[in-house]
Amino acid sequence: MIRNFKLKDGFSGELQINVPREIVINHLRKRQFLGNLFITHIGFFPKARFHFRERPFGCADNILVYCVDGKGHYRSKTAEHTLLPEHFFILPPGESHMYQADIRTPWTIYWLHFSGNMLKAFNHLIKVDDFTTPTKIKKDKRIIEQWSDIYSVLSTGFSDQNLTYATLCLYKLLTFFVCPIDIYTPVIKKDPINDSIAYMKAHIDQQLTVQELAGKQQLSGSHYMMLFKNKTGSSPIDYFIRLKMQYACQLLMQSGFKIGDIAAKIGYYDVFYFSRLFKKTTGYSPSEYRERVCTN
Question: Which ranges form a coiled coil (predicted)?
Fold first, then answer.
């Protein structure tokens, strides 16, 4: 399976960043907490044909490789393995290993190296040997988003702020692999009254009936009336009229429309009827509202 043609990198579309250790060390002198775990290399190799790495004496870092397409093969200290899509492995430091893309269907991988003062404790906590064999992971777009977030910030430079951000993001990225959980997302129940009010606002220029509003929510008129009054304290039509008058107030304040035009915009073509409703609701006629309220 091992080939003569072997590439460390240089693949079309690849992304990779090497964070110089002297930069990391200088950064950690200022922020010792961040020395617990930190990124040393990060990369993405798409369809990495002839990709091959061998380290007879291992690496100083943990190596995480996540396959999203194609496949590859690797040898750890215990056995040889095949890595398939939505599988990953973590290789601990100091252990001989070799990995390579499959010759026919080369893998697409996201990978990173990470180290730190607490790396040994971290590996003990997660039982890192369990992850040296291919481990299946549920497809989750947040993994790639988190990886991209780290790569993006490091690609702009190695400022203290950037290194701090990337290091803190590393913790979240690792949780997807070493302690994944299914977060329960509650199903938001449909609220027929909220939906109905939204429908009223979207049809503020129309005349709606209780039966029409109830029908939109697939409710009987009496049941709809009861639900609406329990939630809002008023009948649907009274509530709709108040919405119309509120919108009329906005138009009076924020535009130079004639009163007849404003009445038409909220579904009233009898200006006198609109004026009576407006005064009943606000205590002012439309012209008085514009003159007294808007000038204050």
Answer: none
